[in-house]
Design brief:
Layout lengths: L4 E8 L15 H5 L7 H17 L4 E4 L7 H6 L6 H11 L1 H6 L12 E4 L9 E5 L6 H4 L2 H11 L6 E3 L17 E4 L8 E6 L20 H10 L7 E5 L2 H5 L9 E4 L2 E5 L6 H11 L6 E5 L6 H7 L5 E5 L2 E7 L6 H12 L4 E7 L2 H4 L9 E7 H6 L8 H14 L12 H17 L11
Parallel strand pairs: 1-2, 4-5, 7-8, 10-11, 13-14
Antiparallel strand pairs: 1-15, 3-4, 6-7, 9-10, 12-13
This protein binds N~2~-(3-carboxypropanoyl)-L-arginine.
Length: 446
């Protein structure tokens, strides 16, 4: 019999070095805001406000910690020597692009932290985690080791949780985690269909691929994650993302589609073989009817989907239908705002829309869905996790005052070389591991 389960959202707490360095070719927002002044304090508070709003609505909400940045061990591995201050000075002078990369607060986008399969889908009935190697971007490729430690610190009990290392860090196995993975199901506690979306095939040069921007995820990576997690063929669908969408700035599938329960909300240009993808999902989805909500380019042009991040929304079960949590930008783009009004007025599964202000993150191409990692947990698993990372009113208050006391409200590229910033970060994170009860997960703590 299926166990009762909920979907928890683990949001990435925005780190103290949040800045705009234009690091992500293919991500339109990141490129267009390069060198803008950022406000890390506001970014972190916006993220916390989103977490709090959803916790107040009764959803289980967790917190994943930011990483140590600038990451001095990476600079040392690249040949920079001396004291921390000397290393920062030399990197700023000789290789400012590398300093920017090792300073990015990109771990906030936890939809890229890992792929997670619920125990109901896995052969050994445990929840499986594979941190994403994020090998397509240097600044993100350095995330997976500490991400793995943080996940192990929260989901510790081996009876319930299985942790795999990231896939080999080469482009053949480029893996971007849950941003390219959705799960459709009747009830969360029942076996579902895991939909893995990839950008290109690594070992088949003849297969379609984008021409302008890189495809970050390969089919081979998705297949490897499915194997590691012990998923059965009957629960799997692999779908290729439309290369034209990648070339229009859709660098992850979660910028053009979102699924929850039996509902798939997507743009008509999301998938290459849409009909086959839907047929396969329908065939494998047991005990539930797929509700496919397709948005046409006439209703919302692809460009508007990308600039508003309509599909980078959180789609959540609510007592009366589903709730779509959208970024504020959706109300600023006319076609999207009109579409949302029509959507809730129709008698489809999505019955309400809530707007969240996550502008600081949006300017780097990260909407509400990028900021969260979904983890389906049954009641036993829920009790087995480290409760220190679960958002309560008290934790929200503590984290808010932690941000208020440690974060700057202005950051520009030159600040990344400031040794004082590094000290501030380490002091803040040392305190944070205590607050979240994570133990020593950072390199500077080991
Ligand atoms: O990987 N931006 C991130 C945004 C990730 C969004 N995540 C999801 N769609 N799930 C990226 O492109 C920009 C950092 C900078 O340019 O400073 C950045 O890494």
């Amino acid at each position: 019999m299926a166990k009762h389960a909920v979907e928890a959202n683990f949001d990435g707490l925005v780190g103290p070095t949040h800045n705009y360095a234009g690091l992500s070719w293919g991500n339109v927002a990141s490129k267009s805001n390069v060198n803008a002044e950022s406000n890390p304090k506001q970014a972190a508070l916006q993220g916390l406000a989103k977490m709090k709003a959803l916790a107040d609505r009764g959803y289980m909400q967790g917190v994943l910690p930011p990483h140590e940045r600038p990451h001095l061990p990476t600079l040392r591995s690249l040949g920079f020597e001396g004291s921390d201050a000397q290393i920062l000075r030399a990197a700023a002078k000789q290789a400012p692009a590398i300093l920017a990369a090792v300073s990015s607060a990109s771990t906030m986008w936890t939809a890229n932290a890992a792929t997670v399969s619920p125990s109901a889908d896995a052969a050994d009935h445990r929840v499986h985690f594979t941190p994403a190697n994020l090998s397509a971007k240097f600044h993100r490729s350095i995330e997976h080791a500490v991400t793995g430690r943080a996940l192990k610190a929260i989901f510790q009990d081996e009876q319930y949780f299985a942790h795999h290392p990231a896939l080999p860090s080469v482009s053949h196995f480029g893996d971007e985690g849950a941003a390219n993975h959705s799960r459709l199901c009747g009830h969360y506690g029942e076996p579902g269909v895991e939909l893995f979306v990839y950008g290109q095939e690594a070992f088949n040069q003849q297969a379609p691929a984008p021409v302008k921007y890189p495809a970050r995820q390969t089919l081979e990576a998705s297949q490897a994650v499915a194997r590691l997690h012990g998923l059965a063929d009957a629960n799997l669908v692999f779908a290729q993302q439309n290369p034209a969408a990648i070339d229009a700035g859709v660098f992850h599938n979660d910028v053009i589609a979102v699924g929850n329960g039996n509902c798939l909300f997507y743009h008509e240009l999301a998938f290459l073989n849409e009909e086959r993808v839907l047929a396969e999902i329908r065939e494998r989805l047991l005990g539930a009817e797929l509700e496919a909500i397709k948005v046409s380019a006439q209703q919302v042009p692809l460009e508007d989907a990308v600039s508003s991040y309509l599909f980078n929304s959180q789609l959540l079960n609510s007592p009366d239908g589903m709730l779509l949590v959208v970024p504020g930008e959706c109300r600023e783009v006319a076609s999207v705002s009109r579409y949302l009004d029509e959507l809730v007025a129709s008698d489809g599964p999505i019955t309400s829309v809530e707007v969240m202000d996550v502008k600081q993150s949006m300017r780097n191409g990260g909407g509400p869905a990028c900021l969260r990692l979904r983890v389906v947990l049954n009641d036993e698993e829920r009790h087995a996790i480290n409760q220190g990372a679960v958002l309560t009113d008290e934790l929200y208050a503590r984290l808010t005052s932690w941000v208020e006391s440690h974060y700057r409200d202005r950051l520009v590229q030159q600040d990344l070389a400031d040794p004082q910033l590094l000290n501030e970060v380490r002091q803040a994170l040392d305190e944070l591991t205590g607050i979240l009860q994570l133990g020593s997960i950072y390199d500077f703590q080991r």
